[in-house]
Design brief:
It is built from eight helices and seven strands; from the N terminus they run βαβαβαβαβαβαααβ. The protein is of the alpha/beta class. It has a single domain, classed as Rossmann fold, CATH 3.40.50.720. The two termini are 33 Å apart. 46% of the residues are buried. Bound molecules: nicotinamide-adenine-dinucleotide. The site of nicotinamide-adenine-dinucleotide has 30 residues, from helix 1, strand 2 and helix 6.
Length: 252
């Protein structure tokens, strides 16, 4: 049990990587607070955790807003009195297309969900984390922020901002003994995949993307969850400001 007696908040935990992280953390003895705007999906993940002997609750809310974070933190404290781990995983992208055709509302939502969420997150969680043992924040950014693919310009930029913001937060929060680390997954088998590809997910179209990943496969939720588990655990107690590429070599 690598996360025994820990309590984690996982944003965007109703599906994909967030779901994988929540399930893996719970199996390692962590109590998990699953957040999402997708109520039915989030409730189903929490129920799944509980039916497998773990502890989890679901808290609906938009993490790009201060109100969303206030409710998330207060519900977590009400249920578990504290928390040690915050995984900022929720994300949003525009469909793969020319940067000139992305509507302004999509640009704004990308920056709200992928970047401004960190602003509200750190303001709301720091007062609790600074009084918790083994305090750690993990940002699920993307290889998009390091090695941009064409057609995803505004998303790529938001992930680069999330990476450098998280690394800067690591320096500012170090005196409070709060670690901040980043995971950069390559394209994954999640609900966002077709938006990233900008085409139907057929075996032929997938092959075009697989050929750009040296290890030859997409990221699975379990790959990202395993990296998150290490960073969240006390095994990583001297690791802060680090970026772990879970990318099969894509960024080499
Ligand atoms: N799938 C990929 O190819 C890939 C690659 C690299 C990074 N990522 C990143 O991984 C993270 C998880 O994405 P995923 O691939 O699992 O996709 P996903 O769509 O399965 O999961 C994202 C979740 O975030 C939730 N969400 C979106 N906006 C929210 C908000 N404002 N408040 C609360 N929840 C919100 C969605 O409802 C969804 O459940 C994202 O940050 C994404 O950018 C994905």
């Amino acid at each position: 049990m690598r996360l025994k007696n820990k309590i984690a908040i996982v944003t965007g935990g109703a599906s994909g990587f967030g779901e994988g992280i929540a399930i893996r953390f719970a199996k390692e003895g962590c109590k998990v607070v699953i957040n999402d705007i997708n109520k039915s999906g989030g409730e189903a993940v929490a129920k799944n955790v509980r039916s497998n002997g773990g502890e989890a609750i679901f808290v609906e809310g938009d993490i790009s807003t201060n109100d969303g974070w206030k409710v998330l933190v207060s519900r977590t404290l009400e249920e578990y009195q504290s928390f040690n781990i915050v995984v900022n995983n929720a994300g949003f992208t525009h469909k793969n297309q020319s940067m000139f055709t992305v509507p302004e509302e999509d640009f704004d939502r990308i920056y709200s969900v992928n970047v401004k969420s960190l602003y509200w997150s750190v303001k709301n969680v720091t007062p609790v984390l600074e009084n918790s043992d083994g305090a750690v924040m993990i940002t699920v950014a993307s290889v998009a922020g390091i090695r941009p693919r064409p057609g995803l310009t505004w998303y790529n930029g938001s992930k680069a901002a999330a990476i450098i913001t998280s690394r800067s937060m690591a320096v500012e929060l170090a005196p409070k003994k709060i670690r901040v680390n980043v995971i950069n997954p390559v394209m994954g088998e999640t609900a966002m995949l077709e938006d990233f590809m900008g085409m139907e997910d057929t075996p032929e179209n997938r092959e075009k993307f697989l050929s750009t990943i040296p290890l030859g496969r997409l990221a699975r939720a379990s790959d990202v969850a395993n990296a998150a588990l290490y960073l969240a655990s006390d095994e990583a107690e001297l690791i802060t400001g680090a970026c772990i590429e879970v990318d099969g070599g894509r960024t080499i």
